[in-house]
Amino acid sequence: MRILLFTGKGGVGKSTLAAGTAALAAAAGHRTLVLSTDAAHSLADALALDVTSDPGVAAGERLSEPVEVADRLWVQQVDAQLRFEQSWADIQGYLLSVLAAAGLDPVAAEELTVLPGAEEVLALLELRLHAASGRWDVVVVDCAPTAETLRLLALPEALGWYIDRVLPVERRVVKALRPVLTRAAGVPMPGDTVFDAVVRLHAELDEVRALLTGDDASVRIVLTPESVVLAEARRSLTTLSLYGYRVDGVVANRVFPAEGADDWRAGWVVAQDAVLAEVEESFAGLPLWRSEYRPGEPVGVAAVRDLAADTYAGTDPLAAPEGEGPFRVTSDRHGTVLHLALPLAGKADVDLARNGDDLVVTVGSYRRLLTVPAGLARLRVAGARVEDGELQVRFVEEEKRAEA
Ligand SMILES: Nc1ncnc2c1ncn2[C@@H]1O[C@H](COP(=O)(O)OP(=O)(O)OP(=O)(O)O)[C@@H](O)[C@H]1O
Ligand SMILES: [Mg+2]
């Protein structure tokens, strides 16, 4: 199952191109699902589907389950709120009991236990079910704007770190102290169901991460030829790599056609050309597709499919991503080198620290706790550098100590 994610700054055309790419895949004979995690219904809007939020309307018609809108083309808008409640209910229940014991008003407590932004993350859990179902050849995901997507893609690993390192200790301590503490403080200690809920949530998020960082998945960055948009696209390329996601191309959308331009449009063509040259330079080595600024909104299956067909201009929109992916390990006679691709990052942007079995890699405001592969954990870090758009960390054997 090929998975394609579309991300980019707000309003650049993610939903339009996600829908168009899916429509093109379906027309080429693939069983295709285009899935949105966004609460706003822009995917449905791009496909001109009549989606009513009338609670009297059946769930299927609100697209919370996949609905076929053209031959082999299915659309789903994940009901993030519902998925959130299913995954979070046990954990929230515990938090609520703690807050109630602390004397907090139940309504205020409820507010506090809603994780902002988590809906989007949990909506991706849906991908596991789709992968397991064998129903699809292609799944296209229309993501939320860049910052949220990045946070979302970092979460499974961050939560995993907590669960592997902190939870076992906490669980043991809590087990031993639960009776004492509950009596003494009057605060309920988390029961096993809470821990189990956290562990289950993590396992599910981990599966999603494995799918999204696997060989069949890639991220496509959508941008418009404007400097501010380009700056954000560049940062997201670096951050996506930091978290191990593979970017397989860039779509420059809303490019003004040059022919027959009046002065106003000619001005834009020149300005866009300058930014497009920078885009080419920034994303050298990656396919760059250009998508024309249409004289009207491309809305409806046929319109978005035509836009996508023009954009990919005969290249295969589903081609397997090339290259080795953002993370690899090589060896030479001096030792072992761990390579983490960080395109566009300079030496000054990257910070590295070792913390037990983890490498803590920080780029700007994003941080990844990278668990060192098992074979390297016992080795010593001999040095690190940022070169050719990647972070290279060299590991060597620990010097032999005199043994008694
Ligand atoms: N190439 C194009 N030519 C003309 N109009 C376009 C083009 N691409 C997108 N649009 C229009 O621009 C608007 C925004 O597009 P779209 O909803 O796809 O962006 P988005 O990135 O998904 O936005 P959001 O961040 O809000 O989800 C829509 O009205 C869409 O029809
Ligand atoms: Mg959108």
Could you give a short description of this structure?
The model has no long low-confidence stretch (mean pLDDT 83). 36% of the residues are buried. 42% of the residues lie in helices and 23% in strands.
Description:
There is one protein chain. Helices cover 42% and strands 23% of the residues. It has twelve helices and 15 strands. The protein has helices at residues 14-27, 42-46, 80-101, 106-112, 118-123, 126-133, 146-165, 167-185, 192-213, 227-242, 263-282, 301-312, and strands spanning 2-8, 32-36, 67-70, 73-77, 138-142, 217-223, 247-255, 288-292, 327-332, 335-341, 350-355, 358-363, 366-371, 380-387, 390-396. The strands form three sheets. It has an eight-stranded mixed beta sheet, with helices on both faces. It has a four-stranded antiparallel beta sheet with strand order 9-10-15-14. A hairpin with a 2-residue loop joins strand 14 and strand 15. Helix 1 packs across helix 12 (301-312), helix 3 runs antiparallel to helix 9 and helix 7 (146-165) packs parallel to helix 10. The N and C termini lie far apart (56 Å).
